[in-house]
Structure formats: C-alpha cells, structure tokens
Amino acid sequence: MNPRDATSRILQAVDDSGTHYRHSIPMIASENILSPMVRRACDSDLHGRYAEGLPGKRYYQGCDDFDTIEEIGIESARRVFNCNFANIQSTSGTVSNIGALKCLAKPGDTITAVSTADGGHISHARMGAVGVRGLNLVTYPWDEGRMEPDIDASLSLIREKEPNLVLFGQSVFLFPTPIQELADAAHESGSMVMYDGAHVMGLIAGGVFQDPLREGADVMTGSSHKTFPGPQGGFLLSDSDDPKLQKRLNNSIFPGVCSSYHLHHVAGKAIALAEFEEFGTDYARDIVANAKALAEALSSEGFDVMAEDRGFTESHQVLTRHGGPDSGAGMKAANTLEKCGIITNMNMLPGDTKAMSGPSGLRLGVPELTRVGMGAQDMGEIARFFSRALISEEDNASLKSEVSEFKSHFQTVRYCFSEGPAYP
C-alpha cells in the first residue's frame, strides 16, 4: 500500500469509528466522550508544544499561555476533589499509578492490592505497574458476595504483612471500598495508603460514591476520561499539606514518568474540570441512577446480575454472569451483542482464570449513555435489547437496525457549557 492510500484508509477508518459509535449503544465502562469545548482544546496548537516543569518554573520558553491553563486547571481540580494538592499532568490513570508508586514505594517493598481475578486493575498486578516498580504483591482475601475485600481477613493480612503501601481501587468497581477501618490498620502498621479511583473519579467528585481522601487515603490517583468526562489523561491528588510530599508527588510525574505530558490534553482536562464544577453533581447522580435502573431491568429480564443482595451497584457499572467459570460465555455474549450494535466487554468474574478465552461475565457501564441524555426509562429498553439478543436470540441484523433507530434520539453531548454533536 502506498503512503497516500494508507493515509486515505486511516482517515476512512477514523470516520468509520465515529459512524460505528453514532449508531451503537456504547457500554464500555472505561469510556466517555468529549464536550465541544474540550474537543476544541485538544485539537489545538498545544498538541505539538512542550512545557516541562510547573507553572512559572519551566525548562522551555514560550510557556506563559500554558502556565495560565495549568494554573487554572490545578485550582479547579483542588476545588472539584476538595484537596490541598493536585497534579493534572499525567497522561493516563496507569501513568498516575506508576508515578504514585515511584513516590510512595521503592523496589522490593511490599504492597497489598485487589487481584485482577477479583476485579483489580492490571496496573495493580505483577504484569503491570506494580511489577514495573519491582514491588512484592500480596492480594486481599475477597468477599465475592459483597464484591469487595473481606474486611476482617484483610485487616489480619495488613497487620501480619505490614506492607509499605496499601492500595485500594478496582477495575470492576460496583461499591465503595471500606477504606476507613483498613486505612487505620495500615497507618498503625506504618503503611501509606493509596486509592486508585480511575473508574469512579467523577462519582467521587460528584459526591455520590465515597470520599477516599477523607476516609484515610494519603494519595488518590485516577483517570480523566471515565466517569470523569474529560480527555484521555490522569490525576494525582492528595489532601496532605506537607510540602515535601507534594514536591515528591510532582517530581514523580515530571521528570518521573512524563517528559511531554500532552499539553492539549491538559488544556482539555482543565476545561472538563470547569464544566464539572457546573454540571458534575447532576451528571454523577444521573450515572448512578442509570446504572441501578439498568441492573434492575436486566435482572427482571432474567439475567444473572451480580451482587443482587446489595442492590446490584452503587457505581456506574453493572456486572452480569452468563455461564460457569472459564466457560467463555462472557466472550460469546459480547460478540453477539456487538453484532446487534451493543458494545460491551467480556470480564473475568470470581472463579475465572483465563483472561482471554474464559471470562464468564460482562462489565457494563453507563457514563457515555448518560452523557448523551439517556435516563432510567431508557435502561429498560436497553435491557430488552439484551434479552432479545441473548435469550430470545432474535436476528442480529434486525436488532441492529432497531438499536440504530433507538440511538438516533441520543446524539448530543450534555452536562457541558456548549452542547453539541456527540459523534462529530
């Protein structure tokens, strides 16, 4: 393929992706879409610029305008997350985690975290950031019924192992983590406490989930593009007023894990923070209401929705089981739904051991659906699409046409200063 043909193919694929999602029901829990103003900042001259350092303390000239952007963004982040320290430079949640681990632990130290099999994020595992940092990982005993660390067993583990760092947070994240008691035990053992809020940053900032920095976390990391509706990027936050810790946290991002930290995304993040100050409480509330409505509707349609005894969910996620451990039923369900225009991801559930071929569940998210104006009543319609696709096994092409018609009524980005097309 010659370079011009390659360019044409690439741009066509870019357009096709927008068309695909415009006509689909996107339910990946880690995804969201940009507001028009955030999109404008991301598609700007800042894309090719550098600003190593902090506002007013740069290694390059020509950064005055970006200093303004970053200073406004930092102050907004401190208000949104109610904290004393905020770094908004990180290029992703995982990069935030690597930076925090660099600050809080050294190679050979012991860390406790949720295992990936129980819903922990890959960056919390030996194959991810924890392994990159050379840490000794010990995972929490898991309470499958409550979908959280077993409190009593985890308390014993922390007191026995006396880890250097205690990490909370998950990729499958249905309920707030019982941080307070566990953090108290960690601090009594001399451990630092870190909370990875990547999936739930918008819910935390919106006041509808939990408040980790008030519940015992020394540092909180997170993504800026999941329930927090900004561009790809990350946050590093703390309520500590210790200037030494704040300096170490800043240094852990630059020069620690970022040289260029994607100035256009930082600008987009700053605008998303400003929009969240105005609309975030409503957005977070509506996300959780939609997730609860979806879980209840799926259960009524006959699906095995996890954590029924706890009300299914208190976050943006719903978890469904479609077969026995390592059955691959989640992968089969995800493939069928995609043929019907519903985009989901297979997910390991407790008991699964094969990440690619064995997942028995689906992890469903509603941040994007909420962002384009869907409400609790629309979750019932989506649950019926699920039932028709996976239980009644109706014709995929026919269902896909109905899904596209349903989605045609939800094409505008909301919860922002300037509403506009969701899929330009």
Q: Would you kindly provide a written description of the structure presented here, covering whatever features stand out?
A:
Helices cover 43% and strands 14% of the residues. It has two domains: 26-33 and 279-421, Aspartate Aminotransferase, domain 1 (Alpha-Beta Complex), CATH 3.90.1150; 38-273, 3-Layer(aba) Sandwich (Aspartate Aminotransferase, domain 2). Helix 6 (151-161) runs parallel beside helix 7 (179-188) and helix 11 crosses helix 14. By secondary structure, it is of the alpha/beta class. The longest helix has 38 residues, at 263-300. Strands 4-12-11-10-9-5-6 form a seven-stranded mixed sheet, with helices on both faces. A four-stranded antiparallel sheet has the order 13-14-17-16. It has a two-stranded parallel sheet with strand order 1-15.
Concise synopsis of the structure shown:
This protein is an alpha/beta fold.
Q: Cα-atom Rg, whole angstroms?
A: 21 Å
CATH superfamily of the largest domain: Type I PLP-dependent aspartate aminotransferase-like (Major domain)
Characterize the largest beta sheet: strand count, sense, and whether it forms a barrel.
7 strands, mixed
Number of domains: 2
End-to-end CA span: 28 Å
Decide which structural class fits the backbone. Answer: alpha/beta
**Ranges with pLDDT <50 over ≥5 residues?**
none
Q: Give me the oligomer status.
A: single chain
Supply the number of helical segments: 15
Task: Estimate the strand proportion.
Answer: 5-15%
3D shape: globular
Quote the CATH topology of the largest domain: Aspartate Aminotransferase, domain 2
CATH hierarchy class name of the largest domain: Alpha Beta
Helix content: 40-55%
Give the total of beta strands: 19
How do the strands line up in the largest sheet?
Answer: 4-12-11-10-9-5-6
Overall average residue pLDDT:
96
